[in-house]
Design a protein that fits this description.
This protein is an alpha/beta fold and 225 residues long. It has a single domain, classed as TIM Barrel. Strands 7-6-5-4-3-2-1-8 form an 8-stranded parallel β-sheet. Strand 5, helix 6 and strand 6 form a beta-alpha-beta unit. It is globular and about 45 Å long. 40% of the residues are buried.
Length: 225
């Protein structure tokens, strides 16, 4: 399995590099977030040992079960929908929450953060308009960015979106392009914004549309266990 992971990681990195080259960008401008939901702590540790420094998890329970057993140089990103009553455990482990989609969640995180702690966050925007997805609407993005920017403990680092499911390339690229446009409109609030967009099936298109973070799961670690 370790050999498979190494080969897959190399392939993903080569594809990221190629997409950056096509876009006239440096490879260093795109971070790989390895998405490890349903996979064991051993698999995650293997990724860390291979040099992966950003791990993405969707579920609070999995974070609590797996991350106390991990060691090494890595950052945990919470990328899944987060309920306000489950914020506490996430704050123990995550250094970035990419799924900030409502003011009530901001209020709860601020209430729980203690002392000199701070947290990087991304605003999740539903750029496809699909009802099944979480995320604020594009029209709500500005107000939520302003709310986070006013926080003493939250650091607004950028925006996140998920491309439309079962859509053609044009629709997916339009969703990514919209996120880039929203970041540009809020450039007064976000310095050098991160754009987290693109997953296993569309991360190369996302890079070509400006992604600075791509969240790759199945192409790297295989399907769900």
């Amino acid at each position: 399995m370790a050999l498979d992971l190494k080969e897959r990681l190399q392939q993903i990195n080569e594809r990221i590099a190629a997409a950056c080259k096509r876009s006239g960008r440096e490879r260093s401008s795109v971070q790989l977030i390895a998405v490890t939901k349903t996979h064991s702590a051993d698999i995650i540790q293997s990724l860390i040992d291979l040099g992966v420094t950003n791990i993405g998890e969707n579920r609070v329970q999995e974070i609590v079960e797996k991350f106390p057993h991990l060691h090494g140089n890595f950052t945990l990103h919470m990328i899944g929908h987060l309920q306000t009553n489950k914020v506490g455990p996430v704050l123990e482990y995550a250094k970035c929450i990419q799924s900030i989609d409502r003011e009530k969640l901001v209020d709860r995180i601020e209430h729980l953060l203690q002392g000199d702690k701070s947290l990087d966050v991304l605003i999740e925007v539903n750029t496809s308009g699909e009802e099944s997805k979480s995320g604020c609407t594009p029209d709500e993005c500005r107000a939520l960015c302003q709310r986070v920017s006013a926080s003493n403990v939250l650091k607004l680092r950028g925006l996140m979106t998920i491309g439309p499911l079962n859509a053609d390339e044009r629709a997916i690229r339009n969703a990514f392009s919209l996120l880039r446009t929203l970041a540009e409109k809020n450039s007064d609030l976000i310095s050098k914004p991160e754009l987290s967009m693109g997953m296993s099936g569309d991360f190369e298109w996302a890079i070509e549309e400006g992604a600075t973070m791509v969240r790759v799961g199945s192409s790297l670690v295989g399907g769900r266990n």
